[in-house]
Amino acid sequence: MPQKNSRKDYGAGGYYHIFNRGVEKRDIFLDEQDYKVFLGYLKFYLEVSEPLSLQDQALKCLGRVDGEKVFPSRASKNYQDQIELLAYCLMPNHFHFLVKQSTDRGIAEFMQSLILKYVLYFNKKYKRVGGLFQSRYKTVLIENESQLTYLTKYIHRNPVDILTSRSGLEKNVDLIDYKYSSYGNYLGFITQNWVKAGEILSYFKSVGHRNSYQSFVKEETDDLKLVYYEMIDLDG
Predict the structure, then answer these.
(1) Does the pLDDT at position 67 exceed 70?
(2) Is 186 exposed, middle or buried (0-12, 13-18, 19+ CB in 10 A)?
(3) Is residue 86 within a helix (H) or strand (E), and if so which, with residue range?
(4) 228 or 22: whose pLDDT is higher?
(5) pLDDT for the residue numbered 172
(6) Residue-range definition of the domain harbouring residue 125
(7) What is the mean pLDDT of residues 151-174?
(8) Which residues contact 199 (CB under 8 A, 6 or more apart)?
(9) What predicted TM-score, i.e. pTM, was given to this entire model?
(10) Which of 26, 6, 39, 232 is nearest to 136 (CA)?
(11) Residue 12's closest CA among 85, 63, 62, 82?
(12) Is residue 97 very low, low, confident or very high in pLDDT (cuts 50, 70, 90)?
């Protein structure tokens, strides 16, 4: 098992939990626009792009027309061939990703681009300078199927406290009401083609995968800690 929160040699084909929080536990999302911008960057870097037609390829080769680029250099900023995002949740002062990478450097390059882009946006909007996050993002290698499925449950249950404070009663909490996680993709309420829910849902296929997964996430059990939660430490 890798040392807690210190895995840096990202192997091709591995599954990883990636998480980080704001410096001094400060909020990194201050309003709805911040959440939407961060999700927009995720989409930009991970969305499956359409292949260029022969004509488009020919135009791209021209480089510039009258001093203007014919095509933006999007290909160099897209990580769809290196990273699959299986689950995510954005919380006021931290975020969680579950990713699978197909190259040795996919995570490092993707996270560098994403974090830099968002910090530049955030600092410009709020007229601040310096780092936004507490430290370098943390990663944990997922080692078996139980950890993989339970991690998505842990990620998707993150907003329980926020939703409970709104409703006043935890039994009334409906996680689908939280707009900034991938849970809606798993239940079929939204479709973000850059979120790959199918692999996790396949483990629940034999008993009606979406309903079964929803029941799995709703169930309050202590085995989250036994199966996965003890591997990570957001306070470390």
Answers:
(1) no
(2) buried
(3) strand 83-91
(4) 22
(5) 62
(6) 15-231
(7) 80
(8) 86, 100
(9) 0.80
(10) 6
(11) 82
(12) very high
Token pair listed for 134 = 């507490």
Question: Which 3 state secondary structure label does DSSP give 50?
Answer: coil
Q: What is the pLDDT of residue 7?
A: 44
Q: Please tell me the total count of domains within the chain.
A: 1
The mean per-residue pLDDT over the stretch 52-73 comes to: 45
**Using CA atoms, how far apart are residues 57 and 83, in angstroms rounded to an integer?**
24
Asked if the structure places residue 9 within a domain, the reply is: no
In a domain, 8, yes or no: no
At 190-219, the pLDDT tens digits run 999 999 999 999 988 765 566 789 989 988
Cα–Cα distance between 154 and 96 in angstroms, integer? Answer: 10
- Show Cβ contacts of residue 181 under 8 Å, excluding neighbours closer than 6 positions: 87, 88, 89, 90, 155, 156, 158, 159, 175
Show the tokens assigned to 153: 């449950």
| Amino acid letter for position 75 | A
C-alpha span between 109 and 77 (Å, rounded): 9
Instruction: For residue 1, tell me if it sits in a domain.
Output: no
Q: Which helix (H) or strand (E) is 38 found in, with range? A: helix 32-46
3-class state of residue 176 by DSSP: helix
- DSSP-assigned letters across all residues of 195-216: B--HHHHGGGGGG-HHHHHHHH
Residue 118 lies in a domain: yes
